[in-house]
Amino acid sequence: MPGPVFQPADLLTLGPGLALIIGAILVLIPDLWARRRGAVSAPLALLFAVATLALVVGIWVRSDPGAAPTAFGGSFVLDRFALFFDVVFLISAILAMGISLHLLPQDDAQTGEYYALILFATAGMMFMTSGLDLLVIWLGLELMTLSSYVLCGYLRTSRRSSEAALKYFLLGAFSTGILLYGMSLIYGATGSTYLPAIRGALDAGTAGGGLFSLGVVLLIAGFGFKVAAVPFHQWAPDVYEGAPTGITAFISTAGKAAALAAMLRIFAVGLWGSQVAAVWVPLVVVLAAASMILGNVTALLQTNVKRMLAYSSIGHVGYILMGLVAVGSQLTGSGARAMAGRGDDLFRFGVASILIYALVYTFTNVGAFAVVAALRGRALAGENVEDFAGLAHRRPLLALAMLVFLLSLAGIPATAGFIGKWYLFGAVIRADMAWLAVIGVVMSVVSAYYYLRVVVAMYMRPAPEGEEQAPVSSVLTATVAMAMGFILLIGVFPQPFLDLASQGAAHLRLPSWLG
Amino acid sequence: MPLIFYMLALVAVVSALMVVTRPNAVHSAMWLVLTFFAVAGLYILQGAEYIAAVQVLVYAGGIMVLFLFVIMLVNLEQVDGFVRSRMRLSGAVVLAGLMLVSVGAAFRLAGVTQVVPLPDGGLPGSLAGPGEPSLAAGNLEVVGTILLTSYLLPFELVSVVLLVAVVGAIVLARREA
Amino acid sequence: MPLVSYISLSAVLFVIGVMGVLLKRNVLTIFMSIELMLNAVNVALAAFARHHGGLDGQIFVFFVMAVAAAEAAVGLAIFIAIFRLKQTTDVTEINLMRW
After folding, report:
1. pLDDT of residue A67
2. What is residue A47's three-state secondary structure?
3. pTM for this prediction
4. Range of A126's domain?
5. What value does the mean pLDDT of chain A take?
6. Section A376-383 average pLDDT
């Protein structure tokens, strides 16, 4: 263990996560005497999230690009890789709170606990991303998932919401068991849960063998559940459909991004070696291809927009996993040959493409769910494709926003989604696995079809007669506007964002603390 | 020693089988308590008195009482049983066989000895790094010390997890206000 | 006892747990099967800890237990919420796993 175990300065390194936890605890308090539940606590939670976002950005600006502060004996690191993901989580949380501030009063369910749990979940994601020890990563994961179970079942009078919570809980706990068994086998084979030490055991050749490989396989399966990759996706559509819309937006973006960040950290720092890569890269290739194909094809059959977005998000996990394949293939076969003598290029490119896609997908998907939330009225659930009929005449701006989100999901140029896909596909092509990119492109075309169905409904079909429109609150308008603005901004001026992603990727394996 | 191990292992496996085969949830829960005790015995056998104690207190004491409460609350007359789906059944059996075979094969491949015993005091850089007291010392004291030094961050994190569980359980289970 | 006996026992317990999750109909017994899986993990961790002569594994077991308790609290609260709405804990009626 490098250096003393704990110094007071470590708390500063813990900064953003700690701020969120303290904020969440404070948010729990005002409901005790507030006249209307959530009246004080909900805006307070939003304030804490925005303040933490400012803190994270500030840390990034002041951080030294050549070093990364670690804390608690090296089991926690606040490098730019973690900071980039922290920004993604916070953006997702803030936008999800925006959706919830609009929806929860309609369900008469506005309380402080809801927002506190979002903050707790976000803090858990930060620990997942910053953890350098399997134990810390897993505890962060538990903090995130336990909060998410409760949030999914938050509308207790709704059958769909309670069933979503039950399904999410049982399959989540099951996958935790699988993940833990994988971790225990890895610990058994290497003698440590500390990622650099695992790496050391791998390099020294004292690890490896069948038990270790089985551990890696179980780890992939466990994370496969968490990111809802095919064939571990069965829980996702029902959960996404049943959960409150704000939570669906949150867990389908930030939740997946956190699991991917943890995977990157574990595989790039701890389990980095050609023997290990030979085990996990083929598995991830299968997961990526299956998710892209099954997710997008099944989405074609859906009439509920929330469910359609759920299946499409399975497809998007497939795209992102391609980035992981590119990263891993630096070590195995094709990529290693293609990149011979070019150092860490492919690695950095792959990681950067995942980072940028996580950011882009967060804005896009949360934005789409925000529009679904805006359509909700007394007579209208706002979740079926028919509910979008004639939206362009009734609410031209809302329809325009939805158009932007859908085009970005489909990956049409001039939107952020195009930039994200361009880099992911570029990464696998560089890794000499063009066939995977071909699947991705074909499936993007398929996805364009079902996204366009919504567009057609909005622009070509007449509005149903006599539908009373629910008013859209200003906070939801701001949410939609912010998501749309960033999508267009990233789509038109991608370079600054790509630079940031590239800096984040460079930090994933800083030699200074890897030793 | 081997005899005690085999007895405890037998109790653990048989009671675990009972947990998943009994048609009555209360019976399953009681068999699960037996499994927990057998596992606690295995911990003592391995010199892990502290986690053996925690196993009895937390699992057999806390979690199972919670289980029984909920069973009494919701479930008394529910019939339990297996899913009636031939596909699921055959799938599960194949999966189970596959996993057992792969664990066996993994051992064969690794030859167990390949799971190398580490130098005294663990790997350099592991959380319980060199200089930490090893198993030989009194278990409770050592575990306590390590929890509050090397493992301070996970320890604090788990307290947040427990706080979330408390908040979450109240949110979900309270009656309508 | 050699490590291999403990790991084999842990594998058997784990598989029993997995079978229970996949095949049982009652959500409560499904959750009990998940607890079996976690116990199998713990047996393996404790055995590895002894094998490596460190305490990392035992500490991990402690954390698994703490989180299992937290999970039980949340999970059972979810069961109660579901039961209030539907008066059943049978997954085939809740349509839990549409594969």
Report:
1. 75
2. helix
3. 0.91
4. 10-514
5. 86
6. 63
Q: What span, in angstroms and rounded, lies between the C-alpha atoms of A307 and B146?
A: 47
Which chain C residues touch B147 with a CB distance below 8 Å? 59, 62
Residues making up chain C, counted from first to last:
99
How far does CA C16 lie from the centroid of its chain? 10
DSSP one-letter code for A76: E
Per DSSP, the three-state class of C51 is: helix
Which residues from C are below 8 Å from B100, CB to CB?
A: 11-12, 15
Q: How many domains does chain A have?
A: 1
Contacts of A11 (CB under 8 A, 6+ apart): A18, A71
- Any domain includes A1: no
pLDDT at B114 over 60: no
Q: Tell whether C94 is within 8 A of chain B (Cβ).
A: no
Q: Which residues pair with B82 in a beta bridge?
A: C24
pLDDT bucket at C94, cuts 50 / 70 / 90: low
> Does residue A192 contact residue A266 with C-beta atoms inside 8 Å?
no
What pLDDT does residue C75 have?
92
Proportion of chain A above pLDDT 90, given as a percent? 41
Are B153 and A153 an interchain contact pair (Cβ–Cβ within 8 Å)?
no
Residue position matching structure tokens 């979940």: A121
Correct CATH for C3-94 of 3.40.190.10, 1.10.287.3510, 2.40.50.140, 2.40.50.320: 1.10.287.3510
Amino acid in the structure at residue C74 = V
Q: Residues with Cβ < 8 Å from A39, sequence gap 6 or more?
A: A110
> What's the 3-state SS for A374-438?
HHCCCCCCCCEHHHHCCHHHHCHHHHHHHHHHHHHHHCCCCCHHHHHHHHHHHHHHHCCCHHHHH
First-to-last alpha carbon distance for chain A, in angstroms, is 12
The tens digit of pLDDT for each residue in B39-51 reads 999 998 888 888 8
Q: Where are the domains of chain C?
A: 3-94
* CA distance to partner chain A, nearest, from residue B62 (Å): 18
C-beta neighbour count of C94 within 10 angstroms? 20
Nearest CB among A111, A157, A191 relative to B118 is that of A191
Pick the CATH number of B1-81 from 3.30.1330.10, 1.20.120.1200, 1.10.730.10, 1.10.630.10: 1.20.120.1200
Task: Give the relative orientation of helices B64-74 and B25-45 as an angle to the nearest 10 degrees.
Answer: 180
What lies within 8 Å, CB to CB, of B119 at 6+ separation is none
Q: Please report the ipTM that was assigned to this predicted complex.
A: 0.93
pLDDT level of residue B106 (50, 70, 90 thresholds): low
CA distance to partner chain C, nearest, from residue A31 (Å)? 21
> Is B94 at the interface with chain C, CB within 8 A?
no
